Amino acid sequence: MAYSSALQQPALVLNESWVAIRTVPVRHALHLMATGAASALDHETFQLYDFESWLECEVRAHDAFVRTVRSAIRAPETIVLARYKGVPIMLAPFCRKNLFRRDRHTCQYCGVRPSGTDLSIDHIIPRSQGGQTSWENCVLSCRRCNHKKRNRTPSQAGMRLLSTPIQPRWNPLFDLSADSIRESWSRFVRLEAS
Predict the structure, then answer these.
(1) Is the pLDDT of residue 4 over 70?
(2) Which of 122, 113, 128 is nearest to 165 (CA)?
(3) Which helix (H) or strand (E) holds 72?
(4) Residue 156: which H helix or E strand, with range?
(5) Where are the domains positioned within the chain?
(6) Which residues contact 23 (CB under 8 A, 6 or more apart)?
(7) Residue 44 pLDDT > 50, yes or no?
(8) Which DSSP state fits 104?
(9) E strand or H helix at 80
(10) CB 191 within 8 A of CB 174
């Protein structure tokens, strides 16, 4: 992994019902464990460990670890909160980066995947006709299609959208690079590729 230390690696946080709610850096996971707010989960045995018993766990050959003055501590991959049952509702905010991710860097009119500089954000119903800047009214468009459509709706321009634009269902709390996703999390969360 491309982290400078195990303390910066992500740890999955489960609520007390074992539902994934977010990721935090290992340093924060260890702090939650040290204060009694969470326990570490061993993915091989599904046993929970409080902070003191986690300190006594042996660091295995494949484990990331944090070195202290006296010993090495396994970096927890998943922690379970002691007193939180909620699941925060987080929606992906509307922004250029997330729109490119939703539309997979593809023109939503012709399906080409040009370089990022050859794609622009198109308002399906143009702003001059009352169109809003929203997930449901904005799509990526290549220069050719954008020029053809101009300041018209797709039907006025004789064009069709390849798919209906909707707000993405992925959760920004789990917006991680592919090399950050741990195999051990697969029982708790389904992460989509960007």
Answers:
(1) no
(2) 122
(3) strand 72-74
(4) helix 154-157
(5) 6-89+171-184, 96-157
(6) 10, 11, 12, 13, 173, 174, 176
(7) yes
(8) T
(9) strand 78-81
(10) yes
Query: What's the length of the chain?
Result: 194
* Short-list 97, 134, 135, CA closest to 116: 97
Residues pairing with 99 in the sheet:
none
How far is the CA of 175 from the CAs of 24, 179, 192, in angstroms?
12, 12, 9
pLDDT digit string, tens, across residues 120-147:
999 999 999 999 999 999 999 999 999 9
Q: Is 33 helix (H, G, I), strand (E, B) or coil?
A: helix
**Which residue type sits at 158?**
G
Q: Are 161 and 125 in contact (CB under 8 A)?
A: no
pTM above 0.85, yes or no: no
- pLDDT in the model for residue 8: 87
Count the helices and strands in the chain (H runs, E runs): 5, 9
Strands 138-142 and 119-123: antiparallel
What does the pLDDT read at residue 188?
Answer: 79
HSE on the CB side for 94, CA within 13 Å?
Answer: 12
- For 96-157, the fitting CATH number among 2.60.120.260, 3.40.50.300, 1.10.30.50, 3.90.228.20 is 1.10.30.50
User: Distance between CA 152 and CA 138 in Å, rounded?
Assistant: 13
Q: How far apart are the first and last CA of the chain?
A: 18
